[in-house]
Amino acid sequence: MNKFEVIKITSEYITLGQFLKFADVISNGGEAKEFINDHDIFVNGSVCKMRGKKLYPDDKVVIDNSMFFEIGKW
Fold this sequence. Notes:
Layout: E1 5-9, E2 14-15, H1 16-22, H2 32-38, E3 41-43, E4 46-47, E5 54-55, E6 60-63, E7 67-73
Parallel strand pairs: 1-7
Antiparallel strand pairs: 2-5, 3-4, 3-6, 6-7
């Protein structure tokens, strides 16, 4: 089983685009759209291609089946 890295947020939710930058997957927000289009991203087991997808605590994000994240509450 893969271990999920917990990324803690202080707000109610974070968008997928913001999350990618916050988790240091991309270096700036301008890369989000291209990154999302070029990679397999799953949110709670479903494919997600929406940069504005809202992620809430306990949501799980898997990128290219090699990066595993869980949203946590700070």
